[in-house]
């Protein structure tokens, strides 16, 4: 199995600020995925982070708002930039390892 | 349009009882179907994964079924426990052109098990 560690687990952020979420995996994986889960909703894919190349963003998500880094095969970061209350969500890191999709515990962000 | 619909939206049962959650999908072409359990404030945890050629998969008290012809899946929970209280999410993997298994998520069924 793959174990994913996410930081921070929770944070309260001021409007207009930016926050970077870290995702560490205990195994080397080709692709890492970032999801958003708004209150009471299911998961929405933000982007796919590939090591050594630009992240691939889904419709409705842009790099300026959600810049992603993927410096190696076990680590990625997602930054939520210029936050507004609408960005209050759980952000989840995910990987596929040996045909199973694993999720981190999520980072609960509340923007005030 | 590729969609995954789950029912019921929420469910309350008594401890020890069985229940069945439903998942209908219109995803095509389809690679596999997964069921996840998500406790409040936690990330989803995989329960089962089935390819189109499999029609049942068990994981302890959880049994998933799949009918690829009717595009329906169910998750049956036997002898429910208080710890089964969670959201259960059906996820279908879509193999579109140039796409390697994009996941389509259902809205989830929120299960509450009462003593």
What does this structure look like?
The complex is a heterodimer of chains A (112) and B (115). Chain A is mainly β and 112 residues long. Helix content of chain A is 0%, strand content 54%. Chain A is globular. Chain B has strands spanning 4-7, 10-14, 19-25, 30-38, 45-51, 56-59, 62-67, 72-77, 86-94, 102-105, 109-114. The model of chain B has no long low-confidence stretch (mean pLDDT 91). Chain B has 115 residues and is mostly beta strands. In chain B, the strands form two sheets. In chain B, strands 2, 4, 5, 9, 10 and 11 form a six-stranded mixed beta sheet that branches. In chain B, strands 1-3-8-7-6 form a five-stranded antiparallel beta sheet, with no helix packed on it. The relative contact order of chain B is 0.33. The radius of gyration of chain B is 14 Å and the shape is globular.
Outline:
Chain A has 112 residues and is mainly β. In chain A, 0% of the residues lie in helices and 54% in strands. The radius of gyration of chain A is 13 Å and the shape is globular.
């Amino acid at each position: 199995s793959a174990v994913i560690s996410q930081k921070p687990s929770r944070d309260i952020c001021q409007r207009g600020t930016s926050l970077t979420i870290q995702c560490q995996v205990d195994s080397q994986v080709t692709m890492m995925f970032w999801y958003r889960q708004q209150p009471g909703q299911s998961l929405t894919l933000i982007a796919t982070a590939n090591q050594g190349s630009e992240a691939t963003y889904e419709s409705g998500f842009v790099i300026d708002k959600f810049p992603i880094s993927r410096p190696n095969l076990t680590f990625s970061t997602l930054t939520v930039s210029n936050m507004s209350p609408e960005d209050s969500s759980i952000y989840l890191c995910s990987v596929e390892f040996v045909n199973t999709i694993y999720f981190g515990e999520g980072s609960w962000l509340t923007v005030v | 349009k590729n969609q995954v619909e789950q029912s019921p939206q929420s469910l309350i049962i008594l401890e020890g009882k069985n229940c069945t959650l439903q998942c209908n999908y219109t995803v095509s072409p389809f690679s596999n179907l997964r069921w996840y359990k998500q406790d409040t404030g936690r990330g989803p945890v995989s329960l089962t994964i089935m390819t189109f050629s499999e029609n049942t998969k068990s994981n302890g008290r959880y049994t998933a079924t799949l009918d690829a012809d009717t595009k329906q899946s169910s998750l049956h929970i036997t002898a429910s426990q208080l710890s089964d209280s969670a959201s259960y999410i059906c996820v279908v993997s879509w193999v579109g052109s140039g796409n390697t298994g994009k996941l389509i998520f259902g809205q989830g069924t929120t299960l509450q098990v009462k003593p």
